[in-house]
Amino acid sequence: MPRATIRDVARAAGVSVSTVSRVFTHPELFRDETRLKVHTAAGQLNYSPNRNAASLTTGRTANIGLVVPNLANPLFPEMIKAAQHGAREHGLAALLADSDDSAADEEKLVHALAKDVDGLILFSSLLTDEQIASVDSLRPLVFVNRHVPGHRSVLVDAPHAMSLLTQYLANLGHTAATYYPGPDNSWVAHDRLAALRKAASTTGLDLTIAPMGPASYESGSAVADELVRQPLPTAVLCFNDQMAMGVVARLLQLGVRIPEQTSVTGWGGTKVGAYSTPALTTIAAPLADLGSAAVAELLLAQQDDPGADPAPVTLEATLQARATTGRARD
């Protein structure tokens, strides 16, 4: 059976060939009714546009790039899924790459993907300022969980979130807490630390800051081994859910009762945190909304004038109080 052509789709949809072509390359120019006709006809005929040919005539690939530091981190799949869905709604394909927590690899991926995409979304980017300067003219860039002046970004309101957390702990009678702040090369780690310092000062929570370092399940387990060699703080706050779950699991193995002897909190709101035992108290970021907003910002970034400096899109997190937190021990 011969492969369907763009003319076949146009005939089935009752529109012109040029309309079919432009629905796939510039869907935002058409009404929902027209887009639906074209996509329905294309689906029935099993037709897909030749992206290489389209890019030669329009200068656009109809692809976007998504770069994450670590796909194994449960924080990212929900954001990625929402971004992919948002891309499809605009007739775009999303190409996904993992930088393996390496700024050097992230830079290489941006250079490689730039040849095949119209713009890139960088999630929790580890690029240095110098590396960003080296790639920012390749394609429009949007940063998630990082603010970069001169670029569109999508952030979580860390000051509001940390205020929720410190007030919650204070209401449970906690007067002190130890915070494990995440890696030093992470912009968002420093952003959260600054927000927590300010919130703790306002709430009156005596805050002990551990050295910056890895924020994985394994590093959380190592943190637990350190904690039991000294007087336990009544509350342990972790940079992310992965680390917090590592702390909880290891403390339980070592015979520490949670939350009776110490409370533990994370950040992220990943589903795995809700399913763990005991269920993890966390600051829940709006993960799907972050991914969707990033795609919307990328579409806008493609229209920005050179030198534009748009304000970040800032979304609010919520506090999900679960079984790893309780009243401070006497």
Structure description:
With 330 residues, the chain is of the alpha/beta class. It has two domains: 63-155 and 287-314, Rossmann fold, CATH 3.40.50; 158-286, Response regulator (Rossmann fold, 3-Layer(aba) Sandwich). The chain has helices at residues 6-13, 17-25, 32-44, 51-58, 76-89, 103-114, 129-135, 158-171, 187-203, 217-227, 241-253, 271-275, 287-301; strands at residues 63-68, 93-98, 120-123, 141-144, 152-156, 176-180, 206-209, 235-238, 263-268, 281-284, 313-315, 318-320. Strands 2-1-3-4-5-11 form a six-stranded parallel sheet, sandwiched between helices. Strands 7-6-8-9-10-12 form a six-stranded mixed sheet, with helices on both faces. α1 packs across α2, α1 (6-13) crosses α3 (32-44) and α10 crosses α11 (241-253). It is elongated and about 75 Å long. The mean pLDDT is 93. It holds the Pfam family LacI.
CATH topology of the largest domain: Rossmann fold
Strand portion, in percent?
A: 15-25%
| Pattern of helices and strands | HHHHEHEHEHEEHEHEHEHEHEHEE
* Biggest sheet layout: 6 strands, parallel
Strand order of the largest sheet: 2-1-3-4-5-11
Low-confidence stretches: none
DSSP helix fraction: 40-55%
The total number of structural domains is 2
Q: C-alpha Rg, in Å?
A: 23 Å
> What is the C-level CATH assignment of the largest domain?
Alpha Beta
